[in-house]
Amino acid sequence: xxxxxxxxxxxxxxxxxxxxxxxxxxxxxxxxxxxxxxxxxxxxxxxxxxxxxxxxxxxxxxxxxxxxxxxxxxxxxxxxxxxxxxxxxxxxxxxxxxxxxxxxxxxxxxxxxxxxxxxxxxxxxxxxxxxxxxxxxxxxxxxxxxxxxxxxxxxxxxxxxxxxxxxxxxxxxxxxxxxxxxxxxxxxxxxxxxxxxxxxxxxxxxxxxxxxxxxxxxxxxxxxxxxxxxxxxxxxxxxxxxxxx
Length: 245
Fold this sequence. Notes:
The protein is of the alpha/beta class. Helices cover 36% and strands 25% of the residues. It has an eight-stranded mixed β-sheet, with helices on both faces. Helix 2 packs across helix 3 and helix 3 crosses helix 4 (122-132). It starts with a strand and ends in a 7-residue tail after the last helix. The mean pLDDT is 94. This is Dienelactone hydrolase.
């Protein structure tokens, strides 16, 4: 397996000066690009791990910073302080995520005709809002992400395919939210897939913060579920975005 280089990448994203991380293999071949949107705490070890894992597969990855300055929200209270404005103001989200996509496709060697967004929790919401904004992104993958929207008609702006992977017992994403999302996608004639994992709660991918999230009452990391859902995603990506060799 080729080694992955990583570097800090500063870019403008709406109202913030963002500090993301670029992960890429050393290859002269054009690489499909993926922007990864982090969970509530920010661009932490879990988001960085996912960026590195995707780069190992042959994608050029920008692990985005949605808060500015690479800041980390290290308490539950602080997470709520930075997440709540994004939940309440989708125009704010869209400005920040489109800035990240612009930064990704501006990287040397990125094939801008093959791009994707992958997000976790609030980052899943971010990835979906990127698509709803009409951004030219071919594939969106949302892990245990928030699915609600104040403007369901905006789904008609979506240009690519959408995959949502969610836990059937997630207390943060109730069944009605999933049902409403599916109706939104169907009405807009989006190429969408939802996968509901039985007996699974929230944050099922985050092995790094597993104990902390479980203590808060909504996390349920499972190595088996993590690997299974990762496989769903990589297969979905590879359908239209063959990684660089």
